[in-house]
């Protein structure tokens, strides 16, 4: 069910790469861009995200729903998650990141 | 004793990161599951921990030559899990560099070996190992180089040859 949304996201300007992981850390989808080594980056970001989510619970809040990072050269990583899946997507900051965020938020709520 | 083989699924992508000393600093959940080590137990360990005795030394020598010259490398590796089962992987290993060009660490992603590749690599490695045991590393190096030359079709790089064997 997430794959059609990812296919839409792949058409958004600034899109670079994406992956979907399940809660076991299995990469169930990867749109690999050889420059990025997405298998590595999506695993590491997902694990970090899950740890931050645990920290959020330890603070008395609930699970994290999303995380956004930006690098000096303008690479934006988006992580959106629910109890089952994490979607990881990388964009150039000049792209339509707002649209990507909207689609990702909607997709994770539906699954 | 008969060893059991673990077959990786398509979603089983093993990811790890080692420091320049070769100690594991990150392992993804799939690595723990496939290798059979409890969560956290791989951190600080050398990758040699999961090396299978059937692996020829020449493969690692060639791999390290590539990595130390700051190049990425593809290779096929037979690993051993904690409970002595074995599993074959198609590995992509690359050095991560600092801005000054020095090596920060090494990153490895490993997937299931294809049946096509396994049919070629398993007997090839067995022969390399035999040569190492009987005649030493130089003999297996010669055989390894001859194999690469034969499969290069003139101008393919070692990585291209290995990639073509997998796919």
Structure notes:
The complex is a heterodimer of chains A (111) and B (167). Chain A contains 3 helices and 5 strands. Chain A has 111 residues and is α+β, with helices and mostly antiparallel strands. With 167 residues, chain B is α+β, with helices and mostly antiparallel strands. Chain B has helices at residues 29-35, 57-68, 115-135, 137-150, 158-166, and strands at 14-19, 24-27, 73-80, 86-97, 103-112. Chain B has a 5-stranded antiparallel β-sheet with strand order 2-1-5-4-3. In chain B, helix 3 (115-135) packs antiparallel against helix 4. Chain B starts with 13 loop residues before the first strand and ends with a helix. The A-B interface holds A 22, 24-28, 30, 37, 39-40, 43-44, 47 and B 9, 11-13, 15, 17, 26, 28-30, 33, 92, 94, 107, 109.
Properties at a glance:
heterodimer; A: 111 residues; alpha+beta; 5 strands; globular; B: 167 residues; 5-stranded antiparallel β-sheet; 5 helices; 38% helix
- CATH topology group of the domain at 14-113 in chain B: Beta-Lactamase
Oligomeric state of the chains present here = heterodimer
Gross CATH architecture of the domain at 14-113 in chain B: 2-Layer Sandwich
Number of strands of chain B: 5
The poorly predicted ranges of chain B are none
Order of helices and strands of chain B: EEHHEEEHHH
Strand order of the largest sheet of chain B: 2-1-5-4-3
Q: How many runs of DSSP E, i.e. beta strands of chain A?
A: 5
Rounded to the nearest angstrom, the distance between the terminal CA atoms of chain A is 7 Å
Largest interface: A-B, 13 and 15 residues
**CA-based gyration radius of chain A:** 13 Å
Shape of chain B: globular
Tally of separate helices of chain A: 3
Rg of chain B, please? 16 Å
Report the portion of residues of chain A in β strands. 25-35%
Q: Could you give a short account of the major beta sheet of chain B? A: 5 strands, antiparallel
The neighbouring-strand order within the major sheet of chain A is: 2-1-5-4-3
The CATH superfamily of the domain at 14-113 in chain B is known as PAS domain
How many helix segments of chain B? 5
């Amino acid at each position: 069910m997430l794959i059609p949304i990812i296919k839409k996201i792949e058409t958004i300007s600034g899109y670079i790469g994406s992956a979907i992981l399940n809660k076991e850390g299995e990469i169930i989808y990867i749109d690999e861009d050889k420059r990025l080594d997405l298998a590595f980056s999506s695993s590491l970001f997902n694990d970090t995200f899950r740890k931050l989510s645990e920290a959020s619970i330890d603070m008395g809040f609930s699970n994290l729903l999303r995380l956004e990072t930006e690098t000096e050269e303008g690479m934006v990583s988006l992580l959106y998650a629910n109890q089952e899946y994490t979607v990881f997507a990388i964009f150039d900051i000049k792209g339509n990141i707002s649209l990507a965020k909207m689609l990702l938020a909607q997709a994770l709520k539906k699954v | 004793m008969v060893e059991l083989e673990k077959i990786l699924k398509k979603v089983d992508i093993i990811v790890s990161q080692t420091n320049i000393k070769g100690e594991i600093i990150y392992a993804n959940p799939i690595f723990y599951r496939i290798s059979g080590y409890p969560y956290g137990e791989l951190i600080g360990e050398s990758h040699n921990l999961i090396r299978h005795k059937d692996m020829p030394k020449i493969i690692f020598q060639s791999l390290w030559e590539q990595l130390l010259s700051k190049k990425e490398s593809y290779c096929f590796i037979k690993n051993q899990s904690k409970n002595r089962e074995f599993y074959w992987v198609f590995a992509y290993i690359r050095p991560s560099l600092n801005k000054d060009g020095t090596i920060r660490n090494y990153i490895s992603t490993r997937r299931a070996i294809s049946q096509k590749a396994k049919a070629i690599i398993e007997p090839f490695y067995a022969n390399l190992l035999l040569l190492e045991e009987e005649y030493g590393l130089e003999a297996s190096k010669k055989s390894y180089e001859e194999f690469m030359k034969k499969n290069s079709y003139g101008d393919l790089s070692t990585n291209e040859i290995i990639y073509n064997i997998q796919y």
